[in-house]
Amino acid sequence: MTQQNLHATVCRKGGYTRTVRPPRAVTDAAKEKLLAAYGIARSHTREYELDHLLDLASGGSSAVQNLFPQPNVLKTATGSAYVHNDKDRVEAYIFHALCGGKVTLAAVQQAMTSDWTTAVQSLGLPMIPAATPDDGHTGQLTRGLGRDSR
Fold first, then answer.
1. Cα–Cα nearest to 58, from 26, 12, 106, 20
2. How far is the C-alpha of 21 from the C-alpha of 98, rounded, in Å?
C-alpha cells in the first residue's frame, strides 16, 4: 500500500482488510502463543483481541512482529461490533481522515506506531467526537473531520 494507491486499496468501496486478514484458525493459534508469551493465562483469552500494532487499514501486516494482545477495555469509546477497545475507535477515526485526504499514510504510520494514544493529536486532527459509535468504517466517525470522508 502506498499513498498513491490508497483509493484502490484500503479506501476502496467494498472493504480492504477482509481481503488481507488471515483466517481465524491462523489468528487463534497466534493469539494463544502471544498470550502465553505475555504471561496471560488461557482462561483470560476472551478479555483480549489479537491486535495489530499498525492496523491493516494503515498498511500494517499480520506478521507476528506486528501483533500483540490488546485488552478489550473501553475507557473513552462506546463499544460496538467493530469497537472492542479504545484503540479501535482511534483507528476508525484515523481511517476516515486518511481516506478523506486529511493526513498522509506515512504520517498515520508514524503516529500509530509511536503512540496510538496521542495519534489523533499528533496528526493535528480534531478530537474524536464524544460518544460517537463506530459502524465499521462507514462514516459515523467523520463528524469531527468536516466533510464526509468516506
1. 106
2. 20
pLDDT score, position 110? 97
In a domain, 22, yes or no: yes
Domain around 72: 3-145
Grid cell of 136 as nine digits? 465499521
φ, ψ for residue 50, nearest 5 deg: -80, 110
Contact, 134 vs 88, CB < 8 A?
Answer: yes
- Judge if pTM exceeds 0.85: no
SS3 for 51?
strand
46 assigned to some structural domain: yes
Query: How many CA atoms lie less than 13 Å away from 146 in the CB half-sphere?
Result: 6
Please tell me the predicted confidence (pLDDT) of residue 104.
97
pLDDT tens digits, 61-96: 888 889 988 888 767 666 666 666 788 889 999 999
> Could you read off the pLDDT of 127-150 as tens digits, one per residue?
988 755 544 544 445 555 654 443
Count of structural domains, the chain: 1
Q: In the chain, what's the furthest Cα-to-Cα distance?
A: 45
Q: Is residue 150 part of a domain?
A: no
